Every structure is written in structure tokens, then in C-alpha cells.
Q: What sequence folds into this?
């Protein structure tokens, strides 16, 4: 098992999770974070830190797409270990439907 970041992170991009990760397995895209599944040690400390509830164990049903997205982009995007402020409109997008189709970006974020 590993933890992965799912759709609700898009445009919310809260970073509370990166501060608590003991193995620094978060990677930053332009408008979301991902977890590197091969680096995650399955400790679960990040899951309750996410205000958008966008971190899930990959054992939950119907998350294959998100496991692939986390795996692919963790190899491309820069590592992030220190939190920054979330986007100003994060609360507006929390829980919004269809965020992947509307907003997902393959562009990398800043990283550390």
C-alpha cells in the first residue's frame, strides 16, 4: 500500500502534508501535489493533515488513475519538503466537481 494524492488537491494545493512527511516523498506541480509511491513508507501521517481530504491509501476502490498520475508526475515534478501558502482561491475550489478535466496541469511547480 501507498498513499496518493487525488483530484481534490487540484487548485487547492494545501501543503500541510509536506511538512509532516518523514521521507520527503511529495512532488509539486503547477496546481497540485503528488506522492511518489515508491518512496512513500505508508506511515499515513500526511492523510489527516490535508484539509481537502485529497490524500487516500491506494487500496481504496477506483483510484488506479490517481496511482498512475502520482507515479508519472513524481518522476517529473520537483520535490517539495517545505510548505507555502495555498492559493488564494483554494477554499473556493475545495470539493468542486470535475477539477481534473477543467484545471489539471502537467507543468511543474517551484519545488524547494
A:
Amino acid at each position: 500500500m501507498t498513499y496518493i494524492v487525488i483530484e481534490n488537491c487540484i487548485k487547492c494545493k494545501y501543503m500541510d502534508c509536506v511538512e509532516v512527511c518523514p521521507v520527503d516523498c511529495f512532488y509539486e506541480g503547477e496546481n497540485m501535489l503528488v506522492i511518489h509511491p515508491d518512496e512513500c513508507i505508508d506511515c499515513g501521517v500526511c492523510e489527516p493533515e490535508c484539509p481537502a481530504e485529497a490524500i487516500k491509501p491506494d487500496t481504496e476502490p477506483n483510484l488506479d488513475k490517481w496511482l498512475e498520475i502520482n507515479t508519472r508526475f513524481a518522476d517529473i515534478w520537483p520535490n517539495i519538503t517545505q510548505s507555502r501558502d495555498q492559493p488564494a482561491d483554494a477554499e473556493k475550489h475545495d470539493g468542486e466537481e470535475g477539477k481534473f478535466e477543467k484545471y489539471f496541469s502537467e507543468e511543474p511547480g517551484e519545488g524547494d
Observations:
- DSSP finds four helices and four strands in the chain.
- The beta strands are 3-5, 26-28, 33-35, 55-57.
